[in-house]
Amino acid sequence: xxxxxGVLAGLVSLAALGTPTTPANAATAAAAGSEAAGRCxxxxxxxxxxxxxxxxxxxxxxxxxxxxxxxxxxxxAVPGTDPVVKSGSxxxxxxxLTFPCAPGVYYAVATDHRGRGATSRAVRLTCAPAPTxxxxxxxxxxxxxxxxxxxxxxxxxxxxxxxxxxxxGTAEENEVxxxxxxxxxxxxxxxxKHDAQLRAAAYGHSADMAAKGYFNHTSKDGRSFxxxxxxxxxxxxxxxxxxxxxxxxxPAAVMNSWMNSSGHRANIMNCRxxxxxxxxxxxxxGPVHWTQDFAAR
Length: 297
What we know:
By secondary structure, the chain is of the alpha+beta class. The chain is 19% helix and 31% strand. Helix 1 (171-186) runs parallel beside helix 4 and helix 2 packs across helix 3 (225-231).
């Protein structure tokens, strides 16, 4: 019997690995023409306070074949009719807005002009800046119940721009990129470039999952992978996707897992994508958490 290669997980589309011990899927947010019409939906994140004491509300249209005006409204829960404190709109697929924080209960409502909508859960905000998931996560036990490690997530290096050799990320992360591009070459796709902002988003999510002991495309604070990509400063783009994995000890092992999962393989072999961010982190002796964020520019 072959040993399990680790764990993969996703948000939007589900694809199972060849063995029952390793369920898998991959998150995608593609532009027109990439998904079936029935998968088009509006998502909205729970309002949060960023590190500059501003409320952040965001929404996105995912899996939609056509563009449509998307509006997000930040509301404050008060006796009587809840007022809209700020609203914003876009046709690019996702929108985020900020508002100077005042203590209270807030929620967000998103709608598109085709009649789809979503409402976040209400949350009480005290206006204290929220912790940034990419900055030295606090030590917490890993997913293994018996783990007692108190070390912070590693690797610690988190470059936000190209280094002296013109590279982004750690040697381990760049080996994943090399293996990705080797597979893409077999399928006739152009190589992906390692983008500093996508790498920051990917590393931040891996470090957050490793430190807080969870495994999901949705962060503990309710953010989607698109929220994290935008928060890292990545602008523009016409299609996006994310792969995550946990437990594979080496770049070769995690690539083997991803390439043996139809959903993850589809993201890696999508010739439309032009840039990628790869992030790997672990908490003490806990499992390595891996994230790939893809974008088309």
